[in-house]
Write a structure and sequence with these properties.
Blueprint: H1 7-57, H2 61-71, E1 78-83, E2 86-94, H3 96-107, E3 112-121, E4 124-132
Organism: uncultured Sulfurovum sp
Keywords: Membrane, Transmembrane, Transmembrane helix
Protein name: Type II secretion system protein M
Length: 133
């Protein structure tokens, strides 16, 4: 077989193969850049969320809001135990409205509730509550 006869076709095939190689390399490189940009954007949004949560959880007024839970119910119905940033509270003999006020207040404070046990005895409620912040 005489290669001189097919010299132009061979050059075109080699150029086409090089073109496909460079196109696939460029496509891979661009997709890798896009993935990296998405990853960076996700990391940045997570970091912003962490900073926002840190501001909420680091708020000095949380302790005041938690101690307000003790004072919103009559002292004879409350057994309160606070150690550092942990609270254990037991409420006995709560009416419907008192229970509603208490649970609404609890759920609107940025705390981690580890235990919330509500038991109904006839028309009164007993609540055991543990939280930390």
């Amino acid at each position: 077989m005489n290669l001189k006869q097919y010299q132009n076709e061979i050059i075109v095939i080699i150029a086409f193969i090089l073109m496909l190689g460079t196109f696939s390399y460029k496509h891979y490189y661009v997709s890798a850049q896009v993935k990296e940009a998405e990853k960076t954007a996700l990391t940045l949004s997570e970091l912003k969320e962490v900073v926002g949560l840190k501001k909420i959880w680091g708020n000095k007024n949380i302790t005041k809001k938690v101690t307000a839970l003790e004072k919103m119910i009559v002292a004879s119905k409350v057994k309160w135990n606070k150690k550092g940033k942990k609270v254990t509270a037991t409420y006995t003999g709560l009416s419907d409205s008192e229970l509603n006020k208490l649970t609404t207040k609890m759920l609107n404070i940025p705390i981690e509730i580890t235990l919330l046990d509500i038991q109904k005895n006839e028309s009164l409620y007993n609540v055991e509550f543990k939280c930390k912040w």
